[in-house]
Design brief:
- The complex is a heterodimer.
- By secondary structure, chain A is an alpha+beta fold.
- Chain A has one domain: BH3618-like (Roll), CATH 2.30.290.10.
- Helices cover 13% and strands 30% of the residues of chain A.
- In chain A, strands 2, 3, 4, 5, 7, 8, 9, 10 and 11 form a nine-stranded antiparallel β-sheet that branches. A two-stranded antiparallel ribbon of chain A has the order 1-6.
- In chain A, β9 and β10 form a beta hairpin.
- Chain A is globular and about 45 Å long.
- Chain A starts with 18 loop residues before the first strand and ends with a helix.
- Chain B is an alpha+beta fold.
- Chain B has one domain.
- Helix content of chain B is 34%, strand content 24%.
- In chain B, a hairpin with a 3-residue loop joins β1 and β2.
- Chain B is elongated and about 60 Å long.
- The N and C termini of chain B lie far apart (56 Å).
- In chain B, 17% of the residues are buried.
- Classes of the chains: A alpha+beta, B alpha+beta.
- Chains A and B meet through β4, β5, α2, β7 and α3 of A and β3, α1, α2 and α3 of B.
């Protein structure tokens, strides 16, 4: 296990605390952030370290999916989705280091999105639950958090998750 | 690559403020304690590489092509969340 929370060599004046974000305390809606939002990933995301600014936008036709597009480079975009739509009992434990970098004081301000890897078929499309994008909706700062040590999958089949509840939504 | 020999409870310092300490050695496993400023992220390398490679797979070109690529999935999801 990685230990990064113990006795940080540099003390910050305001000590941020760790935070657990769950379905019941996260900010959620059809579009968890306004349909057209600029988000700043100060250090980029792994593999795209050089890209800091993304625009997140939705389209009614693709709800609940959203698109995340690099602002300055025309040719980098992602599909993302509210993590709690993919799986209801998801939870993200944010280390204090992350809440501090994001300036996150309250769970209510956190938006948790997953990047989606589109497969050749509906069945093979997956969401990355291990590395959620956590965004502070107050200051639009985001970070891709790697939940090292969790058993959350990098490739979670959205279709499979959908199966049991599709029937359950039909009520007499 | 710089190679240093360390015993249990000994540590190395990287830069001014990153300390890596050998906590325990058990068989072929080494437990390390890392103290670093909060601006520094620490991950096991294979986990970091997994995150990176999945991001590369998830990336597309222009977002205008994405709607078609999602196919029927959005409408299936919409049926569920109603």
């Amino acid at each position: 296990m990685v230990q990064c929370e113990c006795e940080c060599a540099v003390e910050s004046p305001v000590r941020a605390s760790a935070m657990e974000i769950r379905r019941d305390n996260a900010l959620r809606s059809v579009y968890p952030i306004e349909p057209e939002t600029l988000v700043e990933f100060a250090r980029g995301i792994p593999g795209f370290e050089q890209i800091a600014q993304y625009r997140i936008h939705g389209l009614d036709a693709v709800r609940p999916f959203m698109f995340m597009e690099a602002v300055r480079s025309e040719n980098v975009s992602f599909v993302c989705i509210d993590a709690f739509v993919v799986t209801r009992d998801y939870s993200v434990r944010l280390p204090a280091a992350v809440t501090e970098r994001l300036g996150l004081d309250s769970e209510d301000d956190a938006v948790v999105l997953c990047l989606v890897t589109i497969g050749d078929t509906v069945q093979s499309t997956t969401a990355n639950l291990m590395c959620p994008l956590v965004i502070n909706r107050r200051n639009r700062r985001g970070e891709q958090v790697i939940l090292d040590g969790s058993d959350l999958p990098v490739r979670y089949a959205i279709w499979q998750a959908l199966q049991p509840t599709v029937g359950a939504t039909v009520r007499p | 690559m710089l190679i240093l020999a360390r015993k249990q409870d000994e540590s190395i310092i990287i830069g001014d403020d990153i300390q890596v300490k050998v906590i325990r050695v058990q068989g072929n496993q080494v437990h390390l304690g890392i103290s670093a400023p909060r601006s520094v992220t620490v991950h096991r390398q294979e986990i970091y590489e997994q995150a990176k490679s999945e991001n590369l797979k998830a990336a597309h070109g222009k977002s205008t092509e994405l709607k078609d690529r999602l196919g029927a999935l959005p409408s299936l999801m919409q049926a569920r969340t109603k």
